[in-house]
Amino acid sequence: MPSLNKANVSDLPNINQTDQTLINKQLPERAIQFGEGNFLRAYINWMLQQMNKQDLFNGRTVAIQPTPHGKVVPKLNKQDGLFTTILQGIEDGEEKQDIEINSSISRSINPYEDLEELLKLAESEYIEFIFSNTTEAGLVYMEEAFPETESPLSFPGKLTALLYRRFTYRNGDPESGFTIIPCELVENNGNLLQSIVLRLAKEWELPAAFCEWVENDNTFCNTLVDRIVPGYPKDTVGDWEQKLGYKDTLMAVGEPFHLFVIESGQPLEKKLPFQKAGLNVKWDQVKPYRDLKVSLLNAPHTLLFSVGFISGLNTVREVMEDEVVSSYVRRVIYEDILPHLSFNRKEKESFADSVIERFQNPFVKHQLADLGLNAVQKLKSRVFPLLNQQGNVPSTISFSLASLIHYYKPYSIHEGHFMGLHEGRQYKVRDNEVVLETFIDFWRKDQHTEEDVARLLSIQKLWERDLSHLTECVFEYFKSIDRQGAKAATQQMLENVLPVENQK
Q1: 18: confidence class by pLDDT, cuts 50, 70, 90
Q2: For domain 6-114+125-140+176-189+220-284, which CATH number applies: 3.40.50.720, 3.40.50.2000, 3.40.630.30, 3.30.300.110?
Q3: Mean pLDDT throughout 345-358?
Q4: 96 neighbors 90 (Cβ within 8 angstroms)
Q5: Alpha helices in 218-342 (DSSP H)
Q6: Do the Cβ atoms of 346 and 352 come closer than 8 Å?
Q7: Which residue spans adopt a coiled-coil conformation according to this UniProt entry (predicted)?
Q8: Measured on CA atoms in the order 465, 470, 476, 480, is the torsion positive or negative?
C-alpha cells in the first residue's frame, strides 16, 4: 500500500481531482503556524484548504515545531506536508462524512535544529499571517535569554525573535507588521501574547522603536475556537487505510461543526475571506460568543457528566441515546439556560441545536469520566456564573450537585487524586487539594443528614460561594439517588420539579 506523499499522488486510487490539482499547484507561503498538531491541522489548515479550493487565499503555511520533543514535523516532511482530514458527525439531522487530502502546509521546520531557517521566514515578502496553537501551557511567559544561535523554548520567545528579525530586515517599516491569530483556549489570547512579547523585548533590551512597532504595526487578534478534534484514529486506522487506499500517519479526525470568532482592530475580511468560502467565522467581539459557548456547550457538559455516569452510562453519545438522561440534558439547555442568555434569539437557538447534534455524534466517544476531571473547578467557571443571571436556581442544577456529591465518593485514595467506584466501574477523580480533602472528609460517614449536606454546601473555600440555600433540594435529590438509583431519581425529578420557591 503506497504512503501519502507528492510522488505517489497520481497513483493513489481514491484521490479526487480537486485535491490532486491543489497538491500540484504552485502557491506562495503566506502564513506561519506555530504548532502542527491535530487541532490546528483539522481546524486552521482545513479552513485554509477550503479557501484555496475556491481561489480565495492562494497560499500555504510553514509549520513550526513548538517544543523540542515534537514528533510531527518529521512525519509532515516525509509526507510533503500532506495529510487527510476526516470530518464525521451529524449536521442538520443527518450523518455527514467529508474526507479530503489537505495540502495547505508547504513545509515544516524544527527551530531547535535550525533557528535560522525559522528566522528567515521573517524576510519573506509574502508572509502576512501567523497562527498558533501551542495549548494553554504554551501561551505563557518564560524567563529566557535572547536567542543568539539556539531557539527559545517558549512560543512567545520564538515569536519575539521572529518579529525582531522582521523589524530589523524591513527597517521598522510600519507596513511590514504581521497579523497574529492565536488559537490557544485562553481568554484574551491575543492581548496576552502581545504583552508577553513586549515583556521579553524589554528584558532582552531590544530597541524602544521595536516595542512601538510591535504595539502599533502588528495586529494581535483575540479569538475563540470551537471544534472537537479527536485526532488520529488509532483504533480504526487499518479500516481507514483500506478505505483510502494509502497509508497516512497524520490522519486527523474531527467533527463537521466549527466556529471561529476573531476580534481585531483592523478590517481583515478581504485578506482572510473565510466567510466568502462559506466558513462559520465571525469578525466580532469574542466575549459574547465565549459566553454563549460556555453556557450552552461547556456548562451542560459539566452538569450532565455525573448524572449520566452514575446512571450507568459512559459517553455523551450514550447519554443522548438514553431517554431519561437525554431529557435532562434538553431541559438544562432549552429551558434552564437558553432563555436567560442575552444573545440574538435565532443565533442562540441555532447554537443550542448544534450542541445537541454534537452530543449525538456517533463518531466521537466523549467519555463522561474525562468530563468529570476537575469538575468542581469547572462548575465554578462554567455553571455558577449562570446563577448570577437568574433569580432562582433550576432543579436540574440542584440535581447535578446532588449527583456530583455521589460521584465524588472515594473508593481508594492516591497522591493528587482518588478513585471512585460505581457499579463495578472505577474512575479517577482529579481536582485541587481542597476539593479532594473536603469530599474525603464528607464521605467518612456512611449516613448523611440534611445538616451534613448544608455544611458541605456552605464551604466557601470549596465552591467560592455559599450554596447552603440549596440544601433542601440538593439533600432531597441526594437521598433520592441513594434510595432508588440515579436513573429513577432523574426521571422523578423531571416529572416532579420542585417549586422554585424552595430553591431561592
Answers
A1: confident
A2: 3.40.50.720
A3: 96
A4: yes
A5: 237-244, 286-293, 299-309, 316-321, 323-330
A6: no
A7: none
A8: negative
